């Protein structure tokens, strides 16, 4: 085998077998009866995070957050993902644009010193 071919095989093997420790943290928020469950989620500071919204309602909801600079429509009976971060400690509110009086929530970002994520 040529060294180019060996290198390509090694790269392909490594790319397909990335350890799960390298996976992004994921937080799941469910939408039911135009409410978020849970309404408050906690994520680690300084890391990129995958927020997955699962809409169990028969109507769509648009997730909006000015502080996170994100906006996404989650269609009825479906799921959608928003990637956030890395963020500094604090609170980042989000809401459902189609039901802003009931669909409200927030992302709370905590540092390792807050003991939530300390090893």
From TrEMBL:
Q: InterPro entries, alphabetically?
A: Cupredoxin, EfeO_Cupredoxin
- What keywords tag this UniProt record? Signal
Q: Does the keyword Signal apply?
A: yes
Q: Which Gene3D superfamilies match?
A: Cupredoxins - blue copper proteins
**Which first-to-last residue range defines the signal peptide?**
1-23
- Keyword Signal (UniProt): yes
Q: Which residues form the EfeO-type cupredoxin-like domain?
A: 9-109
- State the Pfam families in the record: Cupredoxin_1
Its recorded name reads: EfeO-type cupredoxin-like domain-containing protein
What is the originating organism of this protein?
Alteromonas mediterranea (strain DSM 17117 / CIP 110805 / LMG 28347 / Deep ecotype)
């Amino acid at each position: 085998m040529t060294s180019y071919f060996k290198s390509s095989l090694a790269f392909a093997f490594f790319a397909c077998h990335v350890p799960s420790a390298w996976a992004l943290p994921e937080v799941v928020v469910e939408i039911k009866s135009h409410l978020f469950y849970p309404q408050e989620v906690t994520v680690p500071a300084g890391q990129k995070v995958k927020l997955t919204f699962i809409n169990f309602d028969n109507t769509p909801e648009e997730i909006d957050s000015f502080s996170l600079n994100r906006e996404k429509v989650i269609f009825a009976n479906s799921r959608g993902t928003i990637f956030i971060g890395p963020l500094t400690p604090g609170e980042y509110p989000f809401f459902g644009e189609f039901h802003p009086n009931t669909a409200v929530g927030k992302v709370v970002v905590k540092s390792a010193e807050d003991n939530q994520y300390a090893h």
